[in-house]
Amino acid sequence: MQEVTTVATTRTAHTVWDGSLFEGSGVVTFDSSGIGEHPVSWPARAEEPNGKTSPEELIAAAHSSCFSMALSNGLAKAGTPPTRLNTRADVTFQPGTGITGIHITVEGQVPGMDEADFVKAAEDAKANCPVSQALSGTTITLTASLA
User: Fold this and answer.
1) Which Pfam family, any one of them, does this sequence belong to (predicted)?
2) What residues does each domain of the chain span?
3) Sign of torsion over alpha carbons 86, 91, 92, 93
4) CB pairs under 8 A, 24+ apart, for 98-101?
5) What pLDDT tens digit does each residue of the chain (147 aa) get?
6) Is 3.30.300.20 the CATH number for 54-147?
7) What is the spatial distance between Cα 110 and Cα 78, in angstroms, rounded to a whole number?
8) Residue 84 CA to its chain's centroid (Å)
């Protein structure tokens, strides 16, 4: 099994915002990866996306990928590496209140593992992935099943 890197890393993105909250808009740029620029606006955040992203979608992307990595690592360390994990994170935003919850749904293909052990491993990943820990101020729920 490959060793985990222990050197600290920093990833960077930046946003340029023009105008007021309700009438303005911005562009978030992924500096570290160079994967591009993506428009953001209040209507895209609080109503329909209309081709724009939001902080909540970015959190969902971060959480689903971090959770998948943590679960994959935990399963491999237990001797049952997954063939595939399909993870979705739904981040709920309520204007005026903020982020009110995150729900992770994961379906795994894990040869030699039963459903109960998979759910236990998924709960552990939910509690211990770095993004879950960073988001501990909100309620995080989980649905886990084998394919």
Assistant:
1) OsmC
2) 11-53, 54-147
3) negative
4) 99/56, 99/59, 99/138, 100/138, 100/139, 101/138, 101/139, 101/140, 101/141
5) 566 668 999 999 999 999 999 999 999 999 999 999 999 999 999 999 999 999 999 999 999 999 999 999 999 999 999 999 999 999 999 999 999 999 999 999 999 999 999 999 999 999 999 999 999 999 999 999 999
6) yes
7) 11
8) 17
